[in-house]
Amino acid sequence: MPTQNSKPAVLLTRAIFPEIVERLRAHFEVESNPDDASWDAAELARRLQGKSGVFTTGVERMDAALLAQCPMLKICANMTVGYNNFDLDAMTAAGVLGTNAPDVLTETTADFGFALLLATARRISESERFLRAGRWQRWSYDMFSGAEVHGTTLGIIGMGRIGQAIARRGAMGFGMQVVYHNRSRLDAAVEARCQARYVGKEELLRSADHVMLVLPYSSGVHHTIGAAELTLMKPSATLINIARGGIVDDAALATALRTKRIAAAGLDVYEGEPRVHPDLLEVPNVVLTPHIASATPGTRRAMADVAVDNLIGYLVHGKAVTPLNSAALEALRHG
Asked: Which residues contact residue 224 at a Cβ distance below 8 angstroms, ignoring those fewer than 6 apart?
């Protein structure tokens, strides 16, 4: 247990930029993970003993069973915008603050979402595999004929910061008609800036040429896109998921791709990742990337900096920068 004059102890769950480790060491006793080992729940709980804070990467599950073993823990700081690895109710009950890293990855992730849409619509991965295999012998008028992007209809499910950034790219850069579905409708001024029109989920699926998923994960949106929803989509449509695994029923999607129920899909996230459903590996009309939508050095560094800002802010100065459950914690303390 730290003495009155000692620094609080924090845990880094994965390898991270050396500069980030040094920033933390200026304020804390730091246990890092330079070997980038992936710890199971038991090992994570063991390493959290005596720690006041933990820097997490969006993968490590913080639930009641773990928290019960870590009575000194005060804050879990995710370096990601998503936080479905946090059981916020359990964290609040244990008196543990959760934080995330919004804003800093919006534009980079939107860039990637659009890149994945283009690669999927224009069959870039499929055609590259064909070329690398030495199968390109001559030109033909219909070789790898893909889907139009400019002037088509883009449907966005989940219209937060990233969804809005994608809408702007589609409307202003590619002249697309943008429709969206969200838990709540945006203000008219925001809709106007995005040149986007609110519609019901079924109408979006029926009308969109390209469907982009950008909604946060919760149990309520599990399998938002399943067999029934895929049946509503145009046979020529593409589906892009840069949100979270579990929002799409990957088995149903693989079947829809194999039977050409929809034309193609682009996926950066998966159910049970890093495992990928084996059927998705067998169909040619899908572009697969390993959860890299925010992966530029500048953006990943900015994400890590926000997590550090939260640890310093809360453990040193008493106030986090981007808290998730501070209101619930306050209500519990004064209830």
From this structure: 157, 213, 215, 247, 248
Cα separation of 323 and 318, whole Å? Answer: 12
Domain 106-288 in the same topology as domain 9-104+297-334: yes
What residue ranges in 113-152 does DSSP mark as E strands? none
Residues, the chain: 335
- Is the Cα dihedral 109, 111, 115, 117 positive or negative? positive
CATH of 9-104+297-334, one of 3.40.50.720, 3.40.50.2300, 3.30.1230.20, 3.90.79.10: 3.40.50.720
Of 169, 181, 291, 300, the catalytic one is: 291
* Catalytic residue status for 317: no
Cα distances (Å, whole numbers) of residue 306 to 24, 31, 101, 105, 322: 12, 19, 6, 11, 8
The residues, ordered by sequence, that sit 6+ positions from 46 with a Cβ below 8 Å of its Cβ are: none
Tell me what the pLDDT averaged over the chain comes to. 96
Per residue in 264-322, pLDDT tens? 999 999 999 999 999 999 999 999 999 999 999 999 999 999 999 999 999 999 999 99
Provide the 8-state DSSP code for 175: -
> In this predicted structure, what is the pLDDT of residue 331?
84
Identify the active-site residue in 169, 244, 277, 300: 244
Catalytic residue among 29, 126, 203, 273: 273
Residues 190-194, mean pLDDT to the nearest whole number: 98
14 is catalytic: no
Q: Cα–Cα distance between 230 and 137 in angstroms, integer? A: 35
Domain boundaries, the chain: 9-104+297-334, 106-288
Backbone angles phi, psi at 287, to 5 degrees: -100, 125
Topology (CATH level 3) of domain 106-288: Rossmann fold (3.40.50)
| Strand duo 238-241 + 264-267: pairing | parallel
Amino acid in the structure at residue 96? V
pLDDT band of 5, cuts 50, 70, 90: low
Q: How far apart are CA 78 and CA 60, in angstroms?
A: 9
To the query of whether residue 126 is one of the catalytic residues in this protein, the response is no
pTM above 0.85, yes or no: yes
